[in-house]
Structures are given as C-alpha cells and as structure tokens.
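Q: What would this chain look like folded?
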Amino acid sequence: MSWTDERVETLKKLWQEGHSASQIAKTLGGVTRNAVIGKVHRLGLSGRAAPSQPARPLYKPAKPPRPAAQAQPAPQPAPRRVSVEPAPRPVAQVPAVPIIEGPGSATVLTLGSKMCKWPIGDPSSDEFTFCGRRADDGIPYCVEHSRVAYQPQQKKKKDNGTELSRSLRRYL
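A: My prediction, written as structure tokens:
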C-alpha cells in the first residue's frame, strides 16, 4: 500500500476532525492503525480539533434509588437499677480443640493449632493423615516427633590438614 495524495488528504481531514487512528485506518482501508500514527507523525500533524470520541456512547445503568430511612422515635433509656450484688460476668466460651491421642488419626480438616502436624503416609494416597497428638506451644510437633525433627547440632572435628590432603588426592 502506498500513500497517494488523495489518501494523505483524507488522512489530514479525518485527523483534524478528531477521528482516532483506528477509525481513520478503517475508513482508508488496507492500512493499520500504526501506519496511520506513523504517517501523522511524519506529516507533523499535531493539532486536533477535538479529542477522539468513542464510536458508541457509554452505557451507564441508572442507580437504584436508596430506600428512604423511616423516622423512628429514639429509644428511651432504661431506668438505672441500683444493685448491691455485682452482676455476674459472662464466661467466654472457648471452643475445645480436639486433641487426638492416637497417632495418625488427624486429617487436614480436623487438624488444629495445638495438634502435631507430623505427616504420616503418602500425601497422594487417601490414607494420608497427620499425627494429631498434643503439641507444645510454639512447636508444630508432639514430643516424640520433635525429637526426630530437631536433632542436636553435631560438633565439628578439628581439621589439621589431613582432610584437605585426602580431598586433593582424588584430583591428582
């Protein structure tokens, strides 16, 4: 496609009318939006009569009217009772965490925060469970599994150069 004088004039006219590059490309046919933008830039067409407008008006649904607040009389404060005995305090009900004593009977759905999270079995099988016994605060495992999970740090042997010489012999 080449830019003929007629096509350039049409481009200039549409650009000054405020059409978008996409709309001009459709009108001209056989040219892309980017080609129109490039040609506008090369021609030095900067001023526009008006910014481009969308081809169709935007649809904004009407907002539903707010329900009117019904005026209700303000509630009258209850008369104060003077009591010699203090009112009983409500006791907060803490949901009981089911602690399972037998290992391997907790599932993902029954696992609580104070239960041992040691996995038992293959995670891809239907029989996969967690230990479920009582766990200490701040530790995700029971006493038995904590001994396995947290091993004491082993002392390092003093290296007197013999280990280095053994390692180098492999490469010589």
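The mean pLDDT is 77.
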